[in-house]
Structures are given as C-alpha cells and as structure tokens.
C-alpha cells in the first residue's frame, strides 16, 4: 500500500515538473530552444565524449608508436584508433588501447564517457592513480588496466559500476586495502589484483560476489584470514591467494566449492588440515597447491578420486603419514611432496610411486626431505620412467 502511494506521489511530482517545463519552454523562442540543447541532448552527449577523449589524449606523455596522431579533427572521434561508438547514438562504447606502449596518467574525464562498456589499457605504461571518477561509468562491464605502473589505492567508487563483470588490475603497484565496497559488484565474474602491493585482509564482503568465477589475489602483502563468507561463492572456479601472509585455516566451506578448477593458497602462513573429502567435494579440481604453509595431518585418501588433477603441490608443509594411491590420477603432470614428514622410515613407503605407472603425462616428481624409507631418492627431479618400470 505504502509503496503504491509513494509511487503515485512521485508521478504527481513528475507531472507538475512536466507542466513547469512546458510553461518555461513556451516562454522561449525556437532559437533559444536549440541553444539550450533541449531538443537534441545528443549534441551535448557527443561533445562531452569528444572532450573526454581529448582530455585523455592530453594526459598521454609517451607514444612511441604514434597511436594518438589519428586522434585529430580530420576524422570523427568515432574513427579514432581504439575508439568504438554505438552505431545509432554515436557515443563511445569502447576504448581499447592495449599493448601500445602508451605512457601517461589516466584522466578523470574518462568518467564522463557515460556509454562506455569497455575500457582496456592492458600492457602499457600508465602511471599515477586510478581516478575515483571511473565510478561514474554506470554501463562499464570490462575494466582492464593490467600490466601498467598504476599506483595509489583501488578507488572505492568502483563499487558504483554496477554492470562490472571484469575488473583486471593485475601487474600494477597498487597499495592500500581492498575496498570492502567492491562486495556490491553483484555482476562481477573476474577479479584480479594479482601482483600488486595490497595490504590488509580479504574483505568478507567479497563473499557477496555471487557471480564470481575468478578471484586472483596472488602476490600481494595480504594478511588476516580467509573469510568464511567466500564459501558462498558457488560459481568460483579459480581461488588464487598464493604469495601473501595469510594465516588461520582454510574454512571448511571453501572445500565445498564444487566448481573449483584451480585452488592455490601456496606460500602463506595457513594452518590446519586438508579437508578429508576434498576430492569428492571438488570433483573438477585440476590444480591443488598449498605449498609453503603450516598444513599438518595426513594427505586424505579421497585424493584417490581426484581424477582431473594435473598439478599437486603439497611441499614445504607439516604433512605426515602415507601417500595414498594415485592410480586413478592419469592426468597428473606434477606431484611435489618434498619437505614434509611423510612416510614412516619403512620399506614400502614409496609404493605410491608405482601407482603412477599409468600417468603418462607425468613430468615432475619431487619427494625429498621426508621420512620415506626403502630406496630413498634424494633427487629434486625424478623422471618416473627411469625407476618404476
Ligand atoms: C554530434 O551529433 C550531431 C547530430 O547527430 C552531429 O551533427 C555532430 O556532428 C556531432 N558532433 C560530434 C562532435 O560528433
Ligand atoms: C590525422 O589523422 C589521420 C587519420 O588517421 C592521419 O592520416 C593524419 O596524418 C593525422 N593528421 C595529423 C596532423 O597528424
Ligand atoms: C567531465 O569530467 C571532468 C573531470 O572529472 C569535469 O570537470 C567536467 O565538468 C565533466 N563534464 C563535462 C561535460 O565535460
Ligand atoms: C565517489 O562516490 C561518492 C559516493 O557515491 C560521491 O559522493 C563522490 O562524488 C564520488 N567521487 C568522485 C570523484 O566521483
Ligand atoms: C604481464 O606481465 C607479466 C610479467 O611482466 C607477464 O608475464 C605477462 O605475460 C603479462 N601479461 C600479459 C597478459 O601481457
Ligand atoms: C610483478 O610485477 C613487476 C612489476 O611491477 C614485474 O617486474 C614482475 O615480473 C611481476 N611478477 C610476476 C610474477 O608477474
Ligand atoms: C552481503 O550483502 C548483504 C545483503 O545486501 C548485506 O546485508 C551484508 O552485510 C553483506 N555482507 C558483507 C560481509 O558485506
Ligand atoms: C553460476 O553459473 C551457472 C552456470 O554457468 C549460471 O547459470 C548461473 O547463473 C551462475 N550463477 C550466478 C549467481 O552467477
Ligand atoms: C558442505 O556441503 C555439504 C553437502 O552439501 C553440507 O552438508 C555441509 O554442511 C557443507 N559444509 C560446509 C562447511 O559448508
Ligand atoms: C571414490 O569415490 C567413490 C564413488 O564416489 C567412493 O565410493 C569411494 O569411497 C571413493 N574413494 C575414496 C578413497 O575416497
Ligand atoms: C595400468 O593400466 C593397465 C592397463 O590398463 C592396468 O592393467 C593396470 O592395472 C594399471 N595400473 C595401475 C597401477 O593403475
């Protein structure tokens, strides 16, 4: 009830404003109308786009490939290199200038390209900060600034880009914390801050990114724990947080993410055990990497069923006990178990190696620094064919 009344009031207000506009317009002559731009807002729109592009160009300080020389007024800006416009409205929908050796800072005017769907400046030398004004891009779906030299913090205002599906800021020098507000980007599928200098902990709000498929936070200075909420990300396929200083345990809910292909928490300070059912709850897992942590307990026998696994990196942990049979893992190419407490110093500890005879893809086995008895193999790299046949 309340809702519909409010709605009616809103319509009334609209009606009154509309009347006022009509009266106002009737006081103006036709020339005035044109001058106001009220009859064709398109004119103002495309001028704004042109101005934004010229301001973008003005901030480019290096252009060895002379990309920006095409950005001149002998041709319409929709024909400028890297610019795509909508066919009807002639507004800029894409700005794609990747791999062009451009350097400069990113003009805040880019935030005025209000029809922009894609901004791709990957692999150039853009520096300085990402302007908060990019938060005005209500239609932007892809924001790719990967492999530049961008510094400063991730603008919290990006949370207003509600259509954003791809946010790729990997390979820059971003500092500060991951803004919790990014948890509002409900259409986000791909989030990469790989190889930056981010601090602080992973905000629990990221557990609200229900469309997320790729979360890549590898190589940063992140601390704190892995938030339990990330276990809600049912579509997550890539969970990559290696090379940080994350502590605590892996929340059990994370091992329940049935779409995981790549699970990489290597080189952190994570404790706890490998969830006993992980190979059943993550049936598609191809890469399972937990190396360089403080993980203890046994390697679960359910590993037997991880038939899609091609890369198993468990080295540099505190694992003990037997290595289970690997006979069904015929896609395995790397199995790195070194520097743990595996085996019992007995003959037969290495029997698991013989369960690998049918793993024709195998390239690297790395098992030294354990308690394996029997014919102890001290090599870093063992090519299975040399000893198991
Ligand atoms: C803006 O649009 C108008 C009408 O479509 C067109 O005449 C004009 O050339 C355009 N201006 C620019 C700068 O694109
Ligand atoms: C303007 O752009 C056109 C089209 O790319 C190019 O051929 C021309 O050389 C440019 N003019 C100048 C003065 O750079
Ligand atoms: C565009 O953006 C700049 C900087 O963010 C702002 O100063 C300017 O007023 C905006 N509007 C237009 C129409 O260019
Ligand atoms: C950032 O977002 C806040 C809140 O929506 C807004 O008030 C502010 O103007 C935005 N900043 C810029 C530079 O757009
Ligand atoms: C980004 O840079 C890294 C390291 O410099 C390089 O390995 C990688 O291929 C680059 N990525 C792309 C997509 O260009
Ligand atoms: C990380 O980025 C730096 C430049 O910021 C680059 O030199 C380095 O190769 C990158 N490392 C990786 C592993 O991509
Ligand atoms: C996730 O979204 C819900 C609903 O919008 C909100 O109530 C909750 O606070 C959010 N969680 C976090 C951790 O931000
Ligand atoms: C998860 O993925 C499925 C299959 O691709 C898709 O149908 C579904 O909409 C996705 N869920 C969300 C919340 O994006
Ligand atoms: C994992 O999933 C199973 C079955 O779907 C469920 O019973 C269990 O409670 C889940 N565990 C966690 C920690 O989410
Ligand atoms: C492998 O999966 C099968 C079928 O789900 C199950 O019966 C069996 O117990 C599993 N084996 C191990 C070692 O977990
Ligand atoms: C390897 O494959 C052969 C032929 O399919 C089979 O007889 C044998 O049991 C397999 N060995 C192991 C350890 O899986």
From TrEMBL:
- The main location is membrane
Note whether Disulfide bond occurs among the keywords.
no
What cellular component GO annotations does this protein have? membrane
Extract the InterPro entries matched here. Answer: DNA_repair-toleration, Leu-rich_rpt, LRR_dom_sf, LRR_N_plant-typ
- Residues annotated as signal peptide: none
Where it sits in the cell: the answer is: Membrane
Q: How does it sit in the membrane?
A: Single-pass type I membrane protein
Q: Report the transmembrane regions from the record.
A: 12-30
Q: Name one Pfam family in it.
A: LRRNT_2
Keywords for this protein = ATP-binding, Glycoprotein, Leucine-rich repeat, Membrane, Nucleotide-binding, Receptor, Repeat, Signal, Transmembrane, Transmembrane helix
Gene Ontology molecular function, alphabetical: ATP binding
The Leucine-rich repeat-containing N-terminal plant-type domain extends over 47-85
- Per its record, how is this protein called by name? Leucine-rich repeat-containing N-terminal plant-type domain-containing protein
């Amino acid at each position: 009830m309340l809702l519909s009344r409010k709605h009616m009031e809103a319509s009334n207000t609209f009606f009154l404003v509309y009347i006022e506009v009509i009266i106002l317009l009737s006081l103006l002559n036709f020339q005035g109308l044109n001058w106001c731009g009220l009859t064709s807002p398109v004119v103002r729109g495309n001028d704004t786009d042109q101005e934004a592009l010229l301001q973008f160009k003005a901030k480019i300080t290096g252009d060895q490939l002379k990309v920006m020389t095409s950005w001149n007024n002998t041709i319409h800006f929709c024909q400028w290199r890297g610019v795509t416009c909508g066919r009807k409205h002639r507004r800029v929908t894409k700005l794609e200038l990747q791999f062009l050796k451009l350097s400069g800072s990113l003009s805040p005017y880019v935030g005025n390209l209000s029809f922009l769907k894609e901004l791709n400046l990957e692999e150039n030398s853009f520096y300085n900060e990402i302007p908060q004004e990019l938060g005005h891009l209500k239609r932007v779906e892809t924001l790719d600034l990967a492999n530049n030299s961008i510094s400063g913090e991730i603008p919290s205002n990006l949370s207003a880009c509600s259509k954003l599906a791809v946010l790729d800021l990997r390979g820059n020098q971003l500092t500060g914390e991951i803004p919790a507000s990014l948890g509002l980007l409900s259409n986000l599928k791909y989030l990469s801050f790989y190889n930056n200098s981010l601090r602080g902990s992973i905000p629990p709000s990221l557990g609200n990114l229900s469309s997320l498929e790729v979360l890549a936070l590898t190589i940063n200075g992140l601390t704190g724990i892995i938030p339990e909420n990330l276990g809600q990300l049912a579509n997550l396929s890539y969970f990559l947080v290696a090379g940080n200083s994350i502590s605590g345990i892996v929340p059990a809910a994370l091992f329940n993410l049935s779409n995981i292909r790549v699970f990489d928490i290597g080189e952190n300070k994570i404790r706890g055990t490998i969830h006993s059912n992980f190979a059943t709850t993550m049936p598609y897992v191809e890469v399972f990497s937990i190396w360089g942590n403080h993980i203890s307990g046994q390697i679960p026998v359910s590993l037997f069923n991880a038939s899609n696994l091609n890369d198993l990196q468990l080295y540099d942990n505190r694992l003990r006990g037997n290595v289970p049979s690997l006979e069904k893992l015929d896609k395995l190419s790397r199995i790195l178990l070194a520097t743990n407490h595996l085996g019992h110093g007995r003959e037969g500890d290495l029997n698991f190696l013989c369960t690998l005879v049918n793993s024709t893809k195998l390239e690297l086995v790395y098992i030294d620094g354990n308690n394996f008895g029997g014919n102890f193999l001290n090599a870093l790299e063992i090519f299975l064919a040399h000893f198991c046949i």
